[in-house]
Amino acid sequence: MLTDARIKAVLGAIGASGPGLGELSADPGAAPAFFRPLKARLQAASAAPPSSPASSQALSAAGEFTGRLEKFFSDLALHGTAPDKAVEEALLRLQGACGEAPALLSPGGRAGASARIRGLAAGAHKTLALARAAAEAAPDNFPQNLKFSSIYTGLDGAFDAYESCAEALFKL
Question: Who contacts 169 (Cβ-Cβ below 8 Å, separation ≥6)?
């Protein structure tokens, strides 16, 4: 049974974010309402005593992760842009990575979960980097390419924050 309020909040935020990615892809304007309670729980958990430095690191990284995801979806809504194939692929990988988070707490399963998360993240980073390079190099439709370049960067940053969170969970 998990007794650390910080880790409960972290796993709750990650656990809700993974399945929510599909809904938010369809309606990115719902991001503030979706992430508000997750961020509030993370904030409330920060008052709980830390069980270890890693729990504090995980809590901080989960806050950054939810904040970056909210900004990513808010940017999609602001630009009125639907996710393209690269974004969809990266979101599927992120959804898979979020599903691996609980296994990071299991002594017998953490190494495998960490390896799967690293693989999913590496694939997403590569996909987003290639898409960003293509958008920046394309001479036609400059405004749309610039929007997508910033969208790719935002999702890449959310993955970085997730990886930091996963690393802290692995250390528990």
Answer: 7, 10, 54, 58, 101, 104, 105
